[in-house]
Amino acid sequence: MTHGALIETDEIVVQAVDDLILCEPLFAVVIKNTGVPKLRLRSDGFQTLLQAIVSQQVSVAAANAIWSRLELEKLLDPDKILKTNEVHLKAVGLSRQKIRYAKALAAANLDYTALREKGDDEVIKILTEVPGIGVWTAEIYAMFSLKRADVFAAGDLALKESARLLFSLDKRPNEGELRVLSKKWSPWRSVAALLLWDYYTYTKIGKA
């Protein structure tokens, strides 16, 4: 199964926004206040997923510090992670759980090039089979590293809160409710997510 459209240029984002406003006029409110969302592309591969594991449940500053030490120790490829003992990895700043996750990712021997050609659901299924890679991480990887146009990280707290605000909902939708709501934004759900993230930032700055 091959994937659908890719978000590779600003022109594609503009096209997606135009289509989204037709099916959901309230997105025009977002654009009025935040402008067209910017591309948020990242590289794909082992290091991106390793960085996601490092960043789990710690502050941005702490994650950056640990990553800097991993870079200094040249512990950024699967072979090095597998060969490095737990004591050394703990000294770099990884918890016991994250060491287990990092080694599981390294041992998974994922074919990152092949992932580029697989369908969105298959990508998420393959990634979430690796301990430490949850649905949110897999969806973010598909959106930003594989440039997929129709993926929506419905478990994201900021997206839930942004949807509550934009659509004047009585309460913050749960993941299932937001996933259902997002279906009508297909085939541009990734761009809808960008709009909602921008709106979340705008509303929080506005209240600051």
How would you briefly describe this protein structure?
The protein has 208 residues and is mainly α. It folds into two domains: 10-40 and 150-207, Orthogonal Bundle (Endonuclease Iii, domain 2), CATH 1.10.1670.40; 46-145, Endonuclease III, domain 1, CATH 1.10.340.30. It is 63% helix and 0% strand.
CATH superfamily placement of the largest domain? Hypothetical protein, domain 2
- Average pLDDT, all residues: 94
Stretches with pLDDT under 50, minimum 5 residues = none
Number of domains: 2
Describe the structure.
The chain has 208 residues and is mainly alpha-helical. It has 13 helices and no strands. Helix 3 (46-55) packs antiparallel against helix 7. The radius of gyration is 18 Å and the shape is globular.
Itemize the secondary structure elements and their pairings:
Elements: H1 10-23, H2 27-34, H3 46-55, H4 60-72, H5 78-83, H6 86-92, H7 96-108, H8 112-115, H9 120-128, H10 135-145, H11 157-166, H12 175-182, H13 189-207
Main attributes?
single chain; 208 residues; mainly alpha; Endonuclease Iii, domain 2; Endonuclease III, domain 1; 2 domains; globular
